[in-house]
Amino acid sequence: MKKGIAASKGYAIGKVLLQKHEEIIITDSKIKDVEAEKAVLQNALDASKEQLQKIKAKAVESMGQEKAEVFEAHITLLDDPEFTGGMMLEIESNSINSLKAVDNITNTFVMIFEAMENTYMRERAADIKDVSKRIIANLAGKGGEDLGITEENTIVVAEDLTPSDTAQLDRTKVVAFLTNIGGRTSHSAIMARTLEIPAIVGLKDITTSVKTGDSIIVDGIEGICIINPDQSVIDEYMAKKEIFIAKEEELKKLIGVKTKTKSGKRIEVCGNIGQPEDVDNVLAYGGDGVGLFRTEFLYMDRESAPTEEEQYNSYKYVLEKTEGKQVVIRTLDIGGDKTLPYLPLPEEMNPFLGYRAIRLCLDRKDIFRVQIRALLRASIHGNLAVMFPMISGLEEFQAAKEFVEECKVELKAEGIAYSDTIQWGIMVEIPAAAVCADELAKHVDFFSIGTNDLIQYTLAADRMSEKVAYLYNPMHPAVLRLIKMTIDGAHKHGKWVGMCGEMAGDEAAIATLVEYGLDEFSMSATSILTAKKIIIEQK
Ligand code: PEP
Ligand code: MG
């Protein structure tokens, strides 16, 4: 048995097809005819483009236009003046051969991406490697080859699968894949989820543990695979697979169904997003809207803060896509574990208790103004609610609201429109806010309970520390009481309450939260249908 990272759920039982890793030797021999070498590279680039166009067309068919866009990005890379232009320049300036030029520039790009803090951006290095691998294969005369899959129930095992390899997998034959490297947010993992084939990545040495033809079980839920299993184990997994498929089919029926408890209470089940495009997944899983847009992700992996125009476009995208469904956008929650290279924060002993989120925004109005103006401007494009993070008391909410009024006056003077129906709320993630919820509720339009922080502050158990993870318990009576107080406090004044911390998608907590009267649950897109199912089973 081998354990890796469960990248796409489901079960598969099949035969291994081991992808050989063909090494292409790159030497740094010098060339004499620069122009001829550049022409060789240009031919390889043209061939790569042609292949990628075909792959993209195939991907559009198998996983839809949006997911296939990654190949458009690959095609664009082939024309990128710094990427392929840089390769040409390498040949010209250093008289090196084209293979070496591709290798040099790729290494530089990969190093830049891999050094980025954001996991998503870091994993984009895989796209660069993918394009580069294709160019190199074409230069070596080995381009355009497919994976050679002819048998049904094939389980592809490889060092890594590039996005283009993944897109070409024939779903009628390939039932799962396993790789040595990769993470949950690598493109091959994302694509496996879109194609709905089980996958385990990061297995480290699976390619040396199996050979082509071995029989293998893939458990994409636990992230384990069993090599050459006994018949009894096969039977056990066959049964698990059947139950899983039946459950998934059942869950899909809930897309588009309004979530109501047995007693008829309507509950919104929404998705959390970090980038505007994430909204597509929320909608695909039948989300009732967005319950948390963590806008700090717009500020990360860049050299300066996003401009008003950039932010406006991001918010507008989400508001338009959701077509009138509610979108809760949280203002910048930087500090704690989230830092920005261009915004140095003071060294603090306890950054989670320090200068962060609303505290920082009220101090740095220059930064806050850009975001509030962008939000106000975007508000005319949909159903917007805005919330402030880390509110500990009324003064902070009032100060934030006063600043919003200032921004409205500015916009009005400039003749720029905004909506009068935006709802203004707060995250309840500091125990003080939960305890004073009945007071705060008189002033806000809604609450959203941020249990990720609320739990750590209530139990004095750092959410990042493995050592005290045993104390970090969402079902601790103190946490539950604070949640109940928050919901009761809001309802006393006719306000609604959502929850956007991980606890909202926790299957073990949902029944209790429904019983307490929570009005809205917001979670990662893939948890929406399971949550809906549990909610409709409640009284
Ligand atoms: C929370 O604290 O529960 C929350 C949703 O915010 P974050 O995880 O971004 O701190
Ligand atoms: Mg928080």
Radius of gyration: 26 Å
Q: What is the number of domains?
A: 3
CATH superfamily of the largest domain: Phosphoenolpyruvate-binding domains
Main beta sheet, described? 8 strands, mixed
Number of E-state strands: 16
Report how far apart the termini are.
Answer: 42 Å
CATH topology of the largest domain: TIM Barrel
CATH architecture of the largest domain: Alpha-Beta Barrel
Measured by DSSP, the beta-strand proportion falls in 5-15%
| Strand neighbour order, sheet with most strands | 1-8-7-3-4-5-6-2
In DSSP terms, counting alpha (H) and pi (I) runs of 4 or more, how many helices?
Answer: 21
The class by helix and strand makeup works out as alpha/beta
- Enumerate the distinct ligands: phosphoenolpyruvate, magnesium ion
Instruction: Detail the poorly predicted runs.
Output: none
In CATH's first tier, which class of the largest domain applies? Alpha Beta
Average pLDDT level:
91
Shape: globular
Percent of residues in helices = 40-55%
Domain PEP-utilising enzyme C-terminal: 250-536
Subcellular location: Cytoplasm
Main location: cytoplasm
Binding site for Mg(2+): 429, 453
